[in-house]
Write a structure and sequence with these properties.
With 250 residues, this protein is α/β, with parallel strands linked by helices. The protein has two domains: 140 residues, D-Maltodextrin-Binding Protein, domain 2; 97 residues, Periplasmic binding protein-like II (D-Maltodextrin-Binding Protein, domain 2). The chain is 36% helix and 24% strand. It is built from ten helices and nine strands. Strand 5, helix 6 and strand 6 form a beta-alpha-beta unit. The longest helix has 13 residues. The chain is globular and about 50 Å long. The two termini are 31 Å apart.
């Protein structure tokens, strides 16, 4: 065993486990649990760090998979130069998992009408933010800039949580009046949802890792009718190109 907190490669191979870090989505947890319950002996241990940190950890060799949604808002294209800086000198593949909707979520009884950062600033609505470096935070900053609203004008902008579900729970509890999260969180918690963007949620990994049994089992579960039927009530997910390699380097 090597020094430090990480499992030796030989031990990890024997255990049938790989590590993942990065972004999150409510159905990602369901997907991983479904894979593990249906294919004994194969495991993915996942940590929520935000997309950018997940990519950095992949570049450092501390994780096998980075979950991310770092395509440019508006174009849907990846900044491959930026990815190359986070994961230098490695042959990587970006695998599309699903398309989802991201937008404002807020209480059902809200009288704010159409939500925007301008209206949030004007009405003094308390916003709950995502952590710096997360894909959702990057999207938040993009729409703030496009509306010409400074972050200092948004009440609660410095208050951060790490997952989409936490954003929803802050709003459900009354601690915040608005945030940005997936449509599935609004569906689960009974909140209003106003779409902002459709985006690709993806898996980034070394090309050699793509062929590991754990990854192939994960993709098979993602493409299964059983899994898709299980999450169909959440709506607004598009699995048309799930499991397709959309970019490679090297």
């Amino acid at each position: 065993m090597k020094d430090g907190p990480f499992i030796d490669e030989a031990v990890r191979d024997h255990a049938g486990a790989i590590f993942a870090a990065g972004s999150n989505d409510p159905i990602l947890d369901i997907l991983i649990n479904r894979m593990q319950s249906g294919d004994g002996g194969k495991h993915i241990f996942s940590s929520v760090t935000g997309s950018t940190e997940g990519m950095r950890l992949l570049g450092c060799g501390f994780t096998d998979i980075a979950w991310c949604h770092l395509s440019r808002p508006g174009t849907g294209e990846y900044d491959m130069q930026a990815i190359g800086e986070l994961v230098p000198d490695k042959k990587i593949a970006i695998v599309h998992l699903f398309q989802r909707e991201l937008g404002f979520i807020f209480p059902k009884n809200s009288k704010s009408g159409k939500m925007s950062f301008s209206s949030i600033a004007r009405d003094g609505i308390k916003f709950i933010n995502r952590q710096s470096g997360s894909g959702t935070r990057i999207i938040t900053e993009h729409f703030l800039e496009s509306e010409g609203v400074g972050s200092g004008a948004i009440k609660g902008y410095a208050d951060e949580v790490n997952t989409h579900l936490e954003v929803g729970l802050e709003i459900l509890s009354g601690s915040a009046g608005a945030g940005i999260a997936t449509s599935s969180v609004a569906q689960i918690l009974g909140l209003q949802f106003q779409p902002l963007i459709k985006e690709s949620f993806d898996m980034v990994l070394l090309q050699e890792t793509f062929f590991r049994g754990e990854v192939q089992s994960f993709i098979e579960t993602l493409q299964s009718e059983d899994f898709r039927r299980m999450v169909s009530f959440l709506g607004n997910y598009d699995f048309t190109k799930s499991g397709k390699i959309i970019y490679t380097t090297g």
